[in-house]
Amino acid sequence: MNGLFRIIKFNSTMLISLFFIISVQSCANHSPKNVTFSEKKTSPLKLYDQIKNTYTIVPRDRIEILTPVKKKNESVLALNNSLAFELIDNELYSRQEIEVNPYGEIYLPLIGKIKISSLTVTEANKLLLDSYKKIYKKPRVFLKVTKYTGYDQKNKVAIMGEVIHPGIYFFQHNTSILKTLSMAGGHKNTAELKSIIVIKNGHTKTPQYIKINFQDILNGFAMKKNIQLSAGDIVYVPKSYIAKIDNFVDLFMARIRPAAQTYLDFYYAINARATTPILSP
């Protein structure tokens, strides 16, 4: 698969507990295409989007597509009223979520079946755009993956703290901290990026703690700091600067790691009872 992730969202009770714990601290068989960040002033959101667009689509992924339509009634009948409509520059577009079938195909009104598996998000978007150009003069197409099925349950990392979607992520191969945060939706405005903590081998009795100035990575100054993560690692994005890592270690050992492990134990216990693999939360 692609080294990118699938998120397992925390239930509401666990989220409340984790956010409480974190607030105390405030004193991802296909290889992803290479992405280079040469512009030092590229915004974080653009970097995160670039990373996510290198994901290679596989069967059973779920995607959201915004496509042009000719007539509202025609499209509604075609998809059994499953569309949402919106106007963009006085042009009518439909927004829909579609699951890629086992053959790697999706069905779209006016286009029919089209295979998008084995393509990156960027490549799939271009394929759809070229298809709609046969119908419209200047169409626009927007595609994003909303559920990733390219994952390996043996490889997991926890993303905690000031990120958009904290939780447990599964990935196929070792991957970087930048890719990890991109799949978690990026960081919040309240994040202190100059002291992100990476806990290597966080599930063991002797984890290794690494403090990273993630702001330098986003600015393109220190891509060497974009370290590789592996199974069992934990990434913590704080709300305030962590001056002494020893203080964080005490908090992590006492509260954060047990809470994360409790959730993981619960999740795997539920999965063990299932007769078929659970592909979505």
UniProtKB/TrEMBL annotation:
Ordered alphabetically, the record's keywords are: Cell outer membrane, Ion transport, Lipoprotein, Membrane, Palmitate, Polysaccharide transport, Porin, Signal, Sugar transport, Transmembrane, Transmembrane beta strand, Transport
Q: How does it sit in the membrane?
A: Multi-pass membrane protein
One GO CC term on file: cell outer membrane
GO molecular function terms listed in the Swiss-Prot or TrEMBL record: polysaccharide transmembrane transporter activity; porin activity
Primary localization class, coarse: membrane
Q: Which Gene3D superfamilies match?
A: Outer membrane lipoprotein wza domain like, wza like domain
- A Pfam family annotated for this UniProt entry: Poly_export
Domain SLBB: from-to ranges: 156-237
Q: Does the keyword RNA-binding apply?
A: no
Q: What GO terms describe the biological role, i.e. biological process, of this protein?
A: monoatomic ion transport
Per the record, the similarity remark reads: Belongs to the BexD/CtrA/VexA family.
What is the name of this protein?
Uncharacterized protein
